[in-house]
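step: validate -> pass
step: tokenize input -> pass
step: predict -> running
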Amino acid sequence: MANKLVFVWDFLYHNPMCSGTYHYYAVDLFKSQVKLATGLEIVELRTLKNAQGEVFSRQKFYELSGYKEIAQSYFSYDITKIQQPSYDYLKTFLNEDTFVFGFEMGLELRKILTGFNINFINFWYHSWKLFDDAFLMINTNNRDIFNKLERYKVPCEKFEFYAKYWTYFTMQKGELEYLNNLEDESCLFIGQTLQDKSTDRDGIMLNVLNFKKELEELSSKYSKIYYIPHPLVQYNEEIEQYLKEADYIEKLENVCTYHMLMSKKIKKVVGISSSVLYEAQFFGKEVEYFYKPLFKIDEKFSIETFVSIFHNYYSPYFWADILSVVMMTNKNVENSIWFNDISNKFRNINHIYYGYQNFNENYRLKNCIEKKIADNCNAIKDDIVIKNQDINQKLYEIYKLLDIKNIIKFEYYKYKILSKLTFGNTRKRYNEKQSKFKQQLTKFGQL
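step: predict -> pass
step: emit ->
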């Protein structure tokens, strides 16, 4: 039975200071619930000391296998070249008494832990982005834990339901009309960043240039191949030149990927390993991975399979139930989600919005304001009375209002009520405050 809980990242692939891949904040959210369920604290590998008083050294691990130089991040190591002294060293920190909470652990590390007879659960941001909050999927090497996780699994019909809802939401507002010029019977290629673990094939990061033949073959079956680059992709001259020369490919910018998935003109969605392909199937699209998906979702048990879990991990009972397979737990703990309102709780911590900003109320208001500001600026750009600093001041005031929109609403309704409960100068003062906040709210609606 496990008696030690340790959090790890993909520590052989990335160093611990790479905050973009560490994600401890997510597991830290569950610590108090896990402790209620098990009586144990989750500790971090990077602060854990072995019997010799050492903290784990990634550099030492590789040196024991004869590696002299290792990249700080995205180091694609060959697991067959890791020698026994490295494993013996790692076992001084992680042994059979350890249960691992991992976040985005790669397949190689999962295999190493399984070889050590260490049970784990491995979190990953879910490929589906359009629920009421960003959420996680969970992977394990323990079949009994997997069977328990399946009891909490999100049914695939729920993904289809949300896909339909957001499609109708968007269509009814006329927000797909800008795509009317897309060609019928067309195909969509989803681009990715140039440094992406899911595109790592034997140490080579794949990109669109590795699949020219496949794209040329698709061009004979579809009227047009539309290419949407990843919003964070670095500029690459060779890629840009290829896109210009391939006349059957049209690069699209400033287009919402989800709008493309909603368009009936797009028949097929292709990519290297992008999670968008997973989402595309629920919009009724045919999909094709040029390489492979990074994980299997809601399939049969395997070390590569992830189970879709939405918000149950915010309940102490969930942990008491899941972990009872490998340790003593207290199932008398609270069996409820600790958030009263789940909307955007996880999404807002680390701003995990991706394409969801197109459907979020505050983002939609922000986009509306930006558009109308742009229209307003175009209309007055030749007016010598309006100075640049005036426009900048207007922008500042609007964004300030946007940030405190909910406070403004609260203040307006507060003084509206108070003005009816008071008399004389107090009522007059409250009416003035109510009027001020009303003007600010009206300003939002008229921009």
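step: describe -> Residues 17 and 72 are 9 Å apart (CA to CA).
step: cleanup -> pass
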